[in-house]
Amino acid sequence: MARVKGSRNADYEKERERLLEAVRARLLAKDGAQASFRELAEVAGVSVATLRHYFGSREALLAEVMTDMHRRGLPFLHAAATELHGPVRESLQWFLQQLLMGWRMGVGEVHAFGLTASVGHETLGPVYVQELLEPTLQSAEARLSRHIADGELRRCDVRHAALELVCPVVLGLLHQVQLSGARCRPLDVERFLADHLETFLRAHAVDPESPAPTRPRKPGRPA
């Protein structure tokens, strides 16, 4: 049966996913965010016209890559938002450790790409915020809201509190890893996270002096 004019081939979505997979690997590599549309087409093994057929423009392609990264991260974001791990100190310690572990496993490269491609760009900037930055902040908001409801944290603007909790960590990890700050100004990231959590709890916890979990302290290591 002939395909209706204007409809998509049965393999359209499969090929589109293959192209996304190919260009994503390049975009997350060093200097990937500067790759031209032609270079991305070459990496994907197609012509510029074919890549344009599937995504329209380089800007639209980068936006779709950010959206795809968001989709891939949804299970982890859901866990960060909903999985409680004991009282507030233990819970937020777990959250920060998950953020650190995710950063080391590739989340850092995702944010580096998003920032490089988006800063100063009036279209891609909001895409980065919506698809990559805000989901992490909103997972923190959800976790903090539950501890506020349980009476462990003082009532506050939860969005502000999420920014206080997440942003120093993101900046510290960008500093150490993506900006190579570990070479010129190394930071004990584990100690930084512990100090940061104590500062946050002093500001927001109903009982900031509640004891930390009794567990062996791991030696600091670079991010």
From TrEMBL:
<dbReference type="Pfam" id="PF00440">
    <property type="entry name" value="TetR_N"/>
</dbReference>
<feature type="DNA-binding region" description="H-T-H motif">
    <location>
        <begin position="36"/>
        <end position="55"/>
    </location>
</feature>
<feature type="domain" description="HTH tetR-type">
    <location>
        <begin position="13"/>
        <end position="73"/>
    </location>
</feature>
<dbReference type="InterPro" id="IPR009057">
    <property type="entry name" value="Homeodomain-like_sf"/>
</dbReference>
<dbReference type="InterPro" id="IPR036271">
    <property type="entry name" value="Tet_transcr_reg_TetR-rel_C_sf"/>
</dbReference>
<keyword id="KW-0238">DNA-binding</keyword>
<dbReference type="InterPro" id="IPR050109">
    <property type="entry name" value="HTH-type_TetR-like_transc_reg"/>
</dbReference>
<dbReference type="InterPro" id="IPR001647">
    <property type="entry name" value="HTH_TetR"/>
</dbReference>
<protein>
    <submittedName>
        <fullName>TetR/AcrR family transcriptional regulator</fullName>
    </submittedName>
</protein>
<feature type="region of interest" description="Disordered">
    <location>
        <begin position="204"/>
        <end position="223"/>
    </location>
</feature>
